[in-house]
Amino acid sequence: MNDRIQQAFCEGTAFIPFVTCADPDISLTEELVLAMAEAGADLVELGLPFSDPIAEGPVIQRADERALASGFKIHDLFTLIERLRKHTQIPLVCMTYFNPVYKYQKERFLSSARQAGLDGLIIPDLPYEEQGEIKDSCKAEGIKLISMIAPTSRQRVIAVSRHSEGFLYCVSSLGVTGMRTN
Question: pLDDT tens digit string along 69-123?
């Protein structure tokens, strides 16, 4: 399998924009991802809308609410990726929480993701120590399970980085995502 994530980092660093799927609708999400690829993004992170995004600030929470209110369902993510793959081979990584993967059925989710052309998965509420729950299944489907480290990860950084796949997601600040005043 072509390792699109590795290719995205072939020059050392990569520009990775984020978009919440289906905010305000799936067609605009497709247009935005294609525009990001055209504008030079190296990889695109697709946010899977979720009703309880605990690591997200108010901007992404509202985007998730709008997407869910528009009728977004998990299978729409896979349809979006399939449509994108007709136009671009930019690496696509899904940012989601473990609950939607579990509820959709882990094996079904990962199989659908692989068939659609997803390259990686970031699950912020799945600590490195608990990745055994899904890591082998991701590997079997050829999907990179992206590990996260945070400013508080001091003792864990070496272990997490040694076993990371795709790239290491470095959380730059404590708290939820979004704008800060300092």
Answer: 999 999 999 999 999 999 999 999 999 999 999 999 999 999 999 999 999 999 9
pTM reported for the whole predicted model: 0.88
Q: Is 159 exposed, middle or buried (0-12, 13-18, 19+ CB in 10 A)?
A: middle
Q: How far apart are CA 74 and CA 168, in angstroms?
A: 25
Whether omega before 24 lies within 30 degrees of 0, making that bond cis, reads yes
d(CA 50, CA 73): 10
For residue 152, give the DSSP letter: T
CB 149 within 8 A of CB 171: yes
Q: What is the DSSP letter of 21?
A: T
Which SS3 state, helix, strand or coil, does residue 65 take? helix
Write the CB contacts of 143 (distance below 8 Å, at least 6 apart in sequence).
110, 113, 114, 118, 119, 120, 121
Structure tokens at 87: 């136009």
φ/ψ of 49, rounded to 5, equals: -55, 140
Q: Residue 169, Cα to own-chain centre: how many angstroms? A: 10
Contact 83, 51 (CB under 8 A): no
